[in-house]
Amino acid sequence: MKTYQADQIKNIALLGNSGSGKTTLAEAMLFNGGVIERRGTIEAKNTVSDYRPIEQENGNTIFSTVLYTEFQNKKINILDTPGLDDFSGGVISSLFATDTAVMTINVQNGVEVGTEIHFRHTEKANKPVILVVNGLDHEKAHFEKALEMMKERLSSDIVVIQFPVNEGVGFNAIIDVLKMKMLRYAKDGGKAEVLDIPAAQADRAEELHSALIEKAAESDESLMEIFFANDTLSEDEIRKGISKGLASRGLIPVFCVSSKYNIGVDRLMEFIVNVAPSIADMPPIKNTKGEEVKPNPAGHAAVYVFKSAIEEHIGEINYFRVYSGKVHENLDVVNNNNNTKERLSQLYVCAGKNRTKVPELHTGDIGAFVKLKNTKTGHTLAVPGNDWKLEGVQFPDPKYRTAIKAQSESDDEKLGESLNKIHLEDPTIIIEYSKELKQIIVHGQGEYHLNIMKWHLDNLYKIPTSYHPPKIPYRETITKSAVADYRHKKQSGGAGQFGEVHMIIEPYEEGSKEQTMMKINGKDVKIAVRDKEEVSLPWGGKLVYVNSIVGGSIDARFMPAILKGIMEKMEIGPLTGSYARDIRVYVYDGKMHPVDSNEISFRLAGRNAFSTAFKNAGPKILEPVYDVEIMVPSDRMGDVISDLQGRRGMVLGMASEKRFEVIKAKVPLAEMNKYSTALSSITGGRAVYTMKFAEYAQVPGDVQDAVIKAYSEEEEEE
Ligand SMILES: Nc1nc2c(ncn2[C@@H]2O[C@H](COP(=O)(O)OP(=O)(O)OP(=O)(O)O)[C@@H](O)[C@H]2O)c(=O)[nH]1
Ligand SMILES: [Mg+2]
Prior knowledge:
There is one protein chain. The protein is built from 16 helices and 40 strands. It is of the alpha+beta class. The protein has 5 domains: 6-281, Rossmann fold (3-Layer(aba) Sandwich); 296-382, Elongation Factor Tu (Ef-tu), domain 3, CATH 2.40.30; 400-471, Alpha-Beta Plaits (2-Layer Sandwich); 476-618, Ribosomal Protein S5, domain 2; 623-707, Alpha-Beta Plaits, CATH 3.30.70.240. The strands form 10 sheets. A 7-stranded mixed β-sheet has the order 2-3-1-4-5-11-6, sandwiched between helices. It has a 6-stranded antiparallel β-sheet with strand order 18-17-23-14-15-22. A hairpin with a 4-residue loop joins strand 17 (331-335) and strand 18. The longest helix is centred in the first third of the chain and has 20 residues, at 199-218. The radius of gyration is 32 Å and the shape is elongated. Guanosine-5'-triphosphate binds at residues 16, 18-24, 41-43, 60-61, 82-84, 104, 134-135, 137-138, 258-260.
């Protein structure tokens, strides 16, 4: 395999709605580049990209796949991504690692839900987009309708470079208004025959050619001047303008193909290698120090791992992009994320599961290495001289959770190992071993996402598991102050035990001050703060422990033991056994015995006094509340809001953003169970949302009663 320099490499991510033909297009690109000798199909389950068992079973791409092809002495690295939104992790990491998004549009349906969602990903990532209308051979192909939808729903900067001559069955010709030629294809596609534009298409071609020139001129001032002077641009000037417009997202070109028959694909590839922005044209990304990482082919080597996988017979494989310099076989590097040394003993370029060994890879190129010890997705590897790491891929927060159990306890250990592997391959699946809930919770992007995960556990890892409703990590706190005394006394031969503690507890709020006067048993008592400790609780919130002993009734040396006793009770609230938080305790009096007082006595006295006080202080259950942000088409906004209200959600605001309404709300986690499935059915899959933990809030009375009842029933069962 030839070695490619930075200016000979183009990196594209294939995006688009599920079923719009990304994988089929990739197959045609590999075939046209001579990487494969026969084109596989989804139906025959033999495409290069969809090689994993689950993909062949379902006929969908599930994991992003790294591919490459060669065309006109250039290399195109292709990342084929899944169209289904539950697998958006692969889309986001692929966009990160490439310079241009090539989005397929199924011409029968035009803009679909997934098209809109992926288009928004490109906006967020600020990457150029080439739109490819696919399936023009289909009997229901309707190019004009699809184009209208694209202009209306995606962007007004769309500009047509190609339109079909004879869409539908028998489709074989395209008018290209950049070349101003007709491209005609033989029965099984491949290389176009370049012909003059027939009279019937001439007017439309001229009109679109002018529109293209104007749009290309708009992207660059010097081109604009030439355009004003001459009223036109040369083909090279148009190319330059398109390239600039692409890079700044001011111009979104439209191409026509039938991936199935390999029609138009050669011309699209030619456009990608000649006109799509090159590595040097894209704005440099930043490292964690805030410095720009310019793609410098002569610089020290640095690569970023955007994807890890586990492959049969090989084990872990890491896919990377070179961000600076070049890497070669046996290069010693440092993993800047964990400061370990790694040796890149072998380098590969990949087309699906087929790997070709290469001696070196240059800036901008994409490849893979195997058998590294401490490297995974998100890590930067570099030679000394580059001590930075990239900020890297920002994977979406999880929005769907479930509890998982191995059907047989003997599989517990194996389940843990397998879940770690699953997370390594898909960082959007997050595993949480909750000591508090006594459950293993898996977090993912949606119900389907976790069903696919279960398929892998059943079929590849061979571990029968079951999903269960996840418990909610409730907290408990108090709503008013309460007083309690406790005397611990034991005198049964030998050394006795004695400790007496008087305390008052009150609700604690961040930033609030200690009281100076309190009513204790009907009397006003002055509080003198002698000492104070703010304990930040590992489960969130605080316990503030105030020593306001007067007259030395308890020695300072016993104070830590009392706190220890209180902390024991903070771990099991009186209502549901949940962790407690946000309480201030004043120990204001007590008694010691000259001989029998010791630490254990004060620990027990502290624990029991606190337990009584807690029960009398109006204990309440707190529940986790999430910030939920939903993007929804305007016509479905009402339904989404009324559904949120049914979930005890509080709508905080609404705003129009481009073609969508954005609803911001706070919703209790307990009501978000299976929300992704519900939202999808309310909106026909047209909404997307994110959720992030916001705070703990008191639950309403009826909910509190229900939670306490469920807890006591559960206790009885156990
Ligand atoms: N008629 C026709 N069918 C096509 C064309 N391209 C793809 N298909 C068919 O459309 C279906 C989906 O194609 P894929 O290539 O799997 O689509 P995808 O975009 O990769 O889908 P996901 O992986 O689910 O995101 C398959 O049955 C293909 O054979 C085309 O140009 N014409
Ligand atoms: Mg696919």
